[in-house]
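Example is below:
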Amino acid sequence: MLNKILSLMRENEGMTIHEVASKLGVSSEAALDYELGMVRPTPEIIQKYSEIFGVPVSSIMFFCKEDDDGILSTESRLYFADKIVVLVERLLHGRHRAHHSL
């Protein structure tokens, strides 16, 4: 789920994977691996995503499977995270459709 939100944040800003990779200080392949869920980003990389997109680290970490804080069960967190990702996808795709119809 974390990988999907990283991808959606990038798409929402209209950035390419190469642009994000440059800002992260990693290769394009590494940035793509984060977005595909092949490699879990380090805390330092998540902090950089936070800075690039102006999103609090805690909001990004909401989409991680681990339940370090014990506030929500893993199942609850994943349920809500999935709903949020679907909502963001719909909003993003709706915005692109509206932009192309102008």
